[in-house]
Design brief:
Layout (H helix, E strand, L loop, with lengths): L1 H11 L2 E3 L16 E3 L16 E4 L21 H9 L9 E6 L7 H12 L2 E8 L12 E8 L17
Parallel strand pairs: 1-2, 3-4
Antiparallel strand pairs: 4-6, 5-6
Length: 167
């Protein structure tokens, strides 16, 4: 909301813009020190260039058992669809993408769109359904995760394998 963006701007010295400006705004003038309050589905492709990582948690209501299960046709999926449309066109795509959602996301039309788009854009993916309780956290909430790394990203240093995950 506007108040949160304003407070963040004051605390961290970032420029705050309450809406999308003209297309010229994106021609080399936007930077990491800016906050934009606008709907992702309204942004031009250039707005998504150069990020190191995207973390995505699309609204889960289109996929839950208790909802209408409208999937990708639900209006709340607009931002997700917009990102999937822009990703293959980017000159400098993110190095990594992490997606989180409900387990029912797997097998959905949105999931298929994610798989096809990531593959087309040159990403290698791993998918999991994990529950925090299995890793010692006092919370049982199964979630779907997709970790994607772009083929052009520098190889990361070896990490520690999480117990219970395939190697």
């Amino acid at each position: 909301d506007e108040t949160c963006c304003g407070v963040y701007s004051k605390l961290f010295g970032s420029g705050y813009f309450p809406g999308v400006r003209q297309g010229e705004r994106w021609k080399g003038t936007s930077g990491p020190d800016e906050i934009w309050r606008c709907s992702i589905d309204k942004l031009p492709d250039e707005a998504f260039e150069g990020a190191d990582m995207w973390t995505m948690s699309p609204p889960c209501q289109p996929f839950t058992r208790t909802g209408k299960r409208l999937d990708i046709d639900d209006r709340r999926s607009a931002a997700f669809k917009r990102l999937m449309e822009a990703l293959p066109k980017l000159k400098t795509p993110p190095k990594a993408i992490l997606v989180e959602n409900v387990p029912e996301f797997m097998g959905s039309k949105a999931h298929k769109l994610l798989e096809v788009t990531l593959s087309k854009a040159g990403f290698k993916t791993e998918e999991f359904v994990l529950d925090p309780i299995d890793y010692g956290f006092p919370n049982s909430r199964r979630r779907f995760y997709c970790a994607a790394v772009h083929a052009g990203a520098a190889k990361a240093a070896p990490g520690r394998q999480l117990p219970g995950l395939p190697g």
